[in-house]
Specification:
The structure holds two protein chains of two kinds. Chain A is an alpha/beta fold. Chain A has one domain: Rossmann fold, CATH 3.40.50. Chain A has helices at residues 46-53, 76-82, 98-108, 114-124, 140-152, 170-185, 197-200, 226-237; strands spanning 6-17, 20-31, 35-39, 61-66, 69-70, 83-86, 158-162, 189-193, 206-211, 214-220. Chain A has a six-stranded mixed sheet with strand order 6-7-8-3-9-10, sandwiched between helices. In chain A, strands 2-1-4-5 form a four-stranded antiparallel sheet, with helices on one face. In chain A, helix 3 crosses helix 4 and helix 4 (114-124) crosses helix 5. The two termini of chain A are 22 Å apart. Chain B is mostly helical. Chain B has one domain (2-222). Chain B has nine helices and no strands. The radius of gyration of chain B is 18 Å and the shape is globular. Classes of the chains: A alpha/beta, B mainly alpha. The A-B interface holds A 17, 51, 54-58, 77-78, 80-81, 83, 85, 87, 89-96, 100, 104-105, 107-110, 134, 150 and B 2, 5-6, 9, 13, 16-17, 20-21, 80-82, 84-91, 223-224.
C-alpha cells in the first residue's frame, strides 16, 4: 500500500539544451512506498527527468522539493545521500572486483560496518562467489545485480531506475521485479523508467506517460490491464489521451 | 574531513585501475620512449648542445605523452557511467577533480623521472649536479600542466570526438607555461635556479591560478 508522504516533488520543470526543450512544465511527485512507472517513446525526456531529479542536471526552470523543502545547497547532499540511481549503464568499474566496487562506493558514502554490509548485499544479489572477480568479466545480468547492490548499499529512501531491464534475460528480469516489489514494500519511493510494461505493471502504483517533454497522461496503475495500459500509451503519445 | 577522504579514495581507486588497465600508461610511456630513441638517432651530440636543445625536446615529449594519459582521465568514467555515480555522492564535487588531478600529477612525475634517465642514456643529457633545481622547476610546471589537463579532460569527456578536441583546446592555453618550462629547464641545467627566479615565480603564479580556477570550474565542466 502506498504511503502518503511525498519524498521528492518537481514543480513546473523545464530543461532546455540550446533551443531544444527536453522537459516542459513538468510536475511530478514521488511518494514513500510507491512505485511510479514512467513510460515514453525515445527522446520523450525520461532520462533527462531522471537526471534532474537526481541533481545530476540542473533544471532551466521550475523547482525540486525534498521532503517538502525547496532544494538548495543546504539539503542537496541529504537528497544525494537518500537517492539510489540505477541506469542501463552499469555505473561500475570494470577493472575493480565486485567487492572492491562496493567498498569504494561504501567508503565514499561513509557507511558504517561496511565489510558486513557488503558481504550481506553480495549474498542478497547472489554474487558471493564472484566477489573477487573483476566486474569487466561479468555477464550483463551479473553486472546489473551488482549495480543494484551498489544502489542498496546506502539504504536509499528513493530509487530512480532508468531502464534497469535493458539487456536482462527473462530470469534476470523476474529477479529484478521481485526485488523491486520487496523494496516498495519496505517503504522506498521508486521511479521506474522502462519499456517493460509486462514485468512492471503488476507492481506499479501509478503510471505516467511522457511525450515530447510533457506529461501526456498520469493516473493510478492499480487494476490497469496490460492491453489498457498499451492503449493509453499509444493514445497519449499520439496526443489523444487526457489525464 | 569528508573532502580529503573522498580525494584519497578517488586517487587510490584511479591508481589501482590505471595499473590494472595498463592501456593509458603503456601508450604514453611507449610514445615517450620511442620519441627519445628517434631524437637520439636524429641529433648528433657532438654538434648539438644538449643542454640547450634537450630541454625543449623533453618538454615536447612530456606534453604529448602527458596529454595521451590525461585525456583519458574522464573518458572511461563517462563510457561506463561511473562519473554519474561519483557525481551523485554527497561529497564535494571538487574532491573528484582533486583526486584525478593527483593521479595525473603522480603519473607525469613518474614519466618525467624515467624520461630524464633515458635522456641521459640516449641523448647524453647530463643533469646530475642540477637535479634539485631541475626537480623544483619540473614539479612547478607539472602541477600547472596536470591542473589544466585534468579540467580539460573533464570538459571534453562528454563531447563527441573529445579525444581529437582535447589537445586542440589544451595546448594553446599551455603555451605560456611551456615557454617558462623550457627556459627554466635550460637555466636549471646550466647554472641552477633559486626561488627568486622570475620564470619560477611565473610558474608558481600559473599553478595557483590554474589549480584554483579549475577546482571551482570543475562542477560546471561535468554538468550537462
Amino acid at each position: 500500500m502506498a504511503g502518503e508522504r511525498v519524498i521528492l516533488s518537481a514543480e513546473g520543470l523545464d530543461k532546455r539544451f540550446g533551443h531544444f526543450r527536453a522537459l516542459s512544465g513538468l510536475s511530478i511527485e514521488l511518494r514513500e512506498g510507491e512505485l511510479l512507472l514512467l513510460l515514453g517513446p525515445n527522446g520523450a525526456g525520461k532520462t533527462t527527468l531522471g537526471k534532474v531529479l537526481t541533481t545530476l542536471s540542473r533544471p532551466s526552470r521550475g523547482r525540486l522539493l525534498f521532503r517538502g523543502e525547496p532544494l538548495g545547497e543546504k539539503n542537496r547532499p541529504a537528497l544525494r545521500q537518500a537517492i539510489g540511481y540505477l541506469s542501463h549503464q552499469s555505473l561500475l568499474y570494470g577493472h575493480l572486483s565486485a567487492e572492491e566496487n562496493l567498498l569504494f562506493f561504501g567508503r565514499l558514502y561513509g557507511i558504517g560496518r561496511l565489510q558486513e554490509r557488503v558481504a550481506e548485499l553480495l549474498r542478497e544479489v547472489d554474487l558471493e562467489e564472484a566477489r573477487g572477480r573483476l566486474v569487466g568479466a561479468f555477464s550483463r545480468g551479473m553486472q546489473q545485480r551488482l549495480s543494484l547492490a551498489r544502489v542498496l548499499l546506502t539504504d536509499p529512501s528513493l530509487l530512480i531506475l532508468d531502464e534497469p531491464y535493458a539487456g536482462l534475460d527473462p530470469e534476470g528480469s523476474r529477479t529484478l521485479t521481485h526485488l523491486l516489489a520487496r523494496l516498495k514494500a519496505a517503504s522506498r519511493a521508486i521511479l521506474l523508467v522502462t519499456h517493460e510494461l509486462e514485468d512492471c505493471l503488476p507492481i506499479a502504483d501509478r503510471l505516467a506517460i511522457l511525450h515530447r517533454g510533457r506529461l501526456a497522461w498520469s493516473g493510478e496503475a492499480f487494476g490497469l490491464g496490460l492491453e489498457e495500459a498499451r492503449r493509453l500509451y499509444f493514445q497519449a503519445t499520439s496526443g489523444e489521451a487526457g489525464s | 574531513m569528508r573532502f580529503f577522504r573522498a580525494v584519497g579514495l578517488i586517487f587510490l581507486k584511479d591508481f589501482k585501475e590505471e595499473i590494472r588497465r595498463k592501456e593509458n600508461i603503456a601508450a604514453s610511456f611507449l610514445f615517450a620512449f620511442l620519441s627519445l630513441v628517434l631524437f637520439a638517432f636524429a641529433l648528433d651530440p657532438t654538434r648539438v648542445d644538449m643542454r640547450q636543445t634537450g630541454s625543449g625536446l623533453l618538454w615536447l615529449i612530456i606534453l604529448f605523452a602527458g596529454s595521451l594519459f590525461m585525456g583519458a582521465s574522464f573518458r572511461k568514467e563517462t563510457e561506463t557511467g561511473t562519473l554519474l555515480a561519483l557525481l551523485l555522492c554527497p561529497a564535494d564535487r571538487s574532491a573528484i577533480y582533486i583526486g584525478k588531478f593527483l593521479v595525473n600529477l603522480a603519473f607525469l612525475l613518474i614519466l618525467e623521472a624515467l624520461l630524464l634517465f633515458f635522456a641521459f642514456l640516449f641523448l647524453d643529457f647530463r643533469v646530475a649536479g642540477a637535479l634539485p633545481s631541475l626537480a623544483l622547476a619540473w614539479f612547478g610546471v607539472t602541477v600547472g600542466y596536470a591542473a589544466l589537463g585534468t579540467l580539460f579532460a573533464a570538459l571534453v569527456a562528454q563531447t563527441h570526438g573529445g579525444q581529437v578536441i582535447y589537445p586542440i583546446l589544451l595546448f594553446p592555453v599551455l603555451v605560456p607555461l611551456l615557454i617558462a618550462a623550457a627556459s627554466l629547464t635550460q637555466e636549471a641545467v646550466s647554472r641552477g635556479i633559486s626561488l627568486q627566479n622570475q620564470w619560477l615565480r611565473l610558474v608558481l603564479l600559473f599553478d595557483i591560478l590554474f589549480l584554483t580556477a579549475s577546482t571551482f570550474l570543475f562542477e560546471y565542466a561535468v554538468e550537462e
